[in-house]
């Protein structure tokens, strides 16, 4: 199976590695949203977060503050966003699970994608549906 991130883990592809331990690695995003935008990922290949065990997800996210502290210290960013995309429709480009750490700068501003405005009724209905689905698992 061809996977760019697995190749980076195996050193078959170059990357700007900013963190590495036995099971995880973090690299600079080649197409950053902001200066310092980085990706934290497990070395083991999983496509989506729902393919991982709860423990593996915990292990992955436990690395995020480690990497984020380094990015903040290095860039002088005022804050950061964490993003985690699953599936093409969610803008997941590389099908190897990864967490985006996107530093934010007061002087630049924080541009998200366009927001939709939902009605309270729609939100109530959907919230109940989500709660029911979570509690039935
Ligand atoms: Zn992979």
TrEMBL record:
GO terms for molecular function: adenylylsulfatase activity. It comes from the Archaea. Residues 4-113 form the HIT domain. A motif (Histidine triad motif) lies at residues 96-100. Pfam families: HIT (PF01230). The active site is at 98 (tele-amp-histidine intermediate). One of its GO terms (biological process) is purine ribonucleotide metabolic process. This is Histidine triad domain protein. The lineage of its organism: Archaea, Nitrososphaerota, Nitrososphaeria, Nitrosotaleales, Nitrosotaleaceae.
């Amino acid at each position: 199976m061809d996977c760019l991130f697995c190749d980076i883990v195996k050193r078959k592809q170059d990357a700007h590695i900013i963190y590495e331990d036995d099971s995880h690695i973090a690299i600079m995003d080649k197409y950053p949203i902001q200066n310092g935008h980085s990706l934290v990922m497990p070395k083991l290949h999983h496509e989506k977060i729902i393919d991982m065990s709860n423990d593996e997800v915990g292990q992955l996210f436990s690395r995020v503050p480690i990497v984020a502290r380094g990015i903040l210290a290095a860039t002088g960013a005022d804050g950061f966003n964490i993003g985690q995309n699953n599936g093409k429709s969610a803008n997941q480009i590389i099908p190897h699970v990864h967490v985006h750490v996107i530093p934010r700068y007061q002087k630049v501003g924080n541009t998200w994608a366009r927001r939709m405005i939902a009605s309270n009724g729609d939100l109530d209905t959907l919230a109940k549906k989500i709660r029911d689905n979570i509690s039935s698992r």
